[in-house]
Amino acid sequence: MALTACVAIGALWLALAIDRWLGEPPARWHPVVWMGTWLGWAGPRIAPSIDTPEAGSFKPFVLGTLAWWAGAAIVFIAAWAVQWHVMRHLPWPVAALTLALALKPLLAWRMLRDEVLAVDAALAQSLDAGRARLAHLVSRDTQSLDADAVRESAIESLAENLNDSMVAPLFWFVLFGLPGAAVYRFANTADAMWGYPGERDGRCWAWAGKWAARVDDGLSWGPARLSALLIALVAGRWPSGLARESARTPSPNSGWPMAAMALVLGVRLRKPGVYALNGRGRASVSADVRASTVLGGRAVLAAAALATAGLAAAGGSGLLRIV
Question: What range defines the domain where residue 22 resides?
């Protein structure tokens, strides 16, 4: 096995260990927070005010596209520079640890699992507490949700973010190293902040965030389906009707891991007024929330094992192409 692959595999498992034992770095040192800061600064400069008469579509779309590429270029160059220095100038044990420290903030399983379990614990205290805690996880209005819907939203968030925060970054890390994982997280963050059409903070996002949304759809297409397969694998059974159920969501990707989780748990997952996955399933209970985190944890390990096999088979060639 090439030394480059050994460094990448070591970095992958060290990053998972760091996530397991230490969790997220402070916000001031977190690259995803930096991405969000830049996107937050650029957003008001590309999305027209809702008071702008006949704002049109061409200008905000072009500005949004150019701003996305500018941010992605900064992220790619920074990640490439780190990886180039690590792979070219450090002895392999130090290189693996350094690359792991750079990769870890792009992976966020422990935080996701802990937040989902915190929703369940808060809901055991009161419905209002559960709603308030869920608001940390989702962008939808939580105040009108009943207890069942709070649990369903928590499970949905875990399944969707299993892909966004773990499977997809590992997928792109295998193909293109640290720059691949970093650019994916930038694209996913940009979609979360810019990609939903409508009015937010007095600005119209119908066109300004369209490029960000479409790029995230493209980059997440394969990993989302892989996430569903991993959930089925660790559950030990194939979720019958997966493709049909996944198509019920407006997103071309998020429905796959969410539908897989709903089907293997046997519960329904709904976004009121938008979709219902496994609509004939039973109402979720506290044990289902905990079961989803167990399945998610096993899927993370399966994804890491698959990534290890991919890196070993490629001999680190994805890393070598960009160092």
Answer: 3-320
